[in-house]
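Dear colleagues,

As part of the handover before I leave the project, I'm documenting each prediction I ran so the next person doesn't have to rerun anything. This entry is a single chain, and its sequence is reproduced below.
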Amino acid sequence: MEQFQSWFGESAVQTLTGYAVGFCKNIIAAIVIYFVGKWLIQKVVTLVERLLEKRKAEASLKSFLSSVVRVGLWLMLTIAIISVMGIETSSFVALFTGAGMAIGMAISGMLGNFAGGVIILMFKPFKVGDYIKAQGYEGKVREIQIFNTVVTTRDNRTIIIPNGGLSTSSLENVTTQKYRRVDLTFDFAYGTDYEVVRKAIADIQDRCPQIIKEPVAEDPLVDVPWQGLTNLGESGVTITTRSWCLSTDYFAVSNYMNYTVYQELRESGFMFPFNQLDVHQK
């Protein structure tokens, strides 16, 4: 020490010694912060994963959110360690902020779709297997991805719908309810005996195996089959039927009623009207 003092002077040696001691303290503090921060990050990520499991989040959402939380916490830990080492962090923060803004502006649409995917996976307005109508399309949900939802139409076309629109606009989930009501209308020519037609249609409803014949206690909306005269049109009268069934039987009931009413009542001599024009010549 005396030799160093003779070379550089006593004040210089004291300054260097102070810098060395301070640097060692910073190194020790950075190491302690690193291990404590690493432990805390693991605890927080584990807590997030458990919360997602309790909410029964999708596996893809759970993995993605865990990764986002982990990366964000590691970024904060890195900035903290750099700050403890005595390095100015304002430039790093400005760099990260600028990069984040640039990336956000460049992929704003993707971020909107990502946010929509997170909302769909967390709140589950629909799930895989449901039949939905949205964004001008309808079909069965085959896959819910982070950015898009894959829907298969009834004629086996694959439609990819961005999640941003699905999460912010109106959507009809056809399969949410256990029961559905099938409303159909049938037109008959003027002069048709309404009571005879009504009884014939009621008999067809009674013979349809998928139509529910009695009220259901678990759902007070479900009622017995109904028929009624609902309109006096330009070319004929309209009889409306309401039939309750399981949601999975909706199209079967609709097809059965339309086909059977047309076949049986046509064979019985009832006339189905069509638009016509009477011309009187003087």
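The chain has a mean pLDDT of 81. The beta strands are 131-134, 137-144, 148-152, 158-162, 172-173, 179-188, 226-232, 237-246.

All the best with the project,
I.
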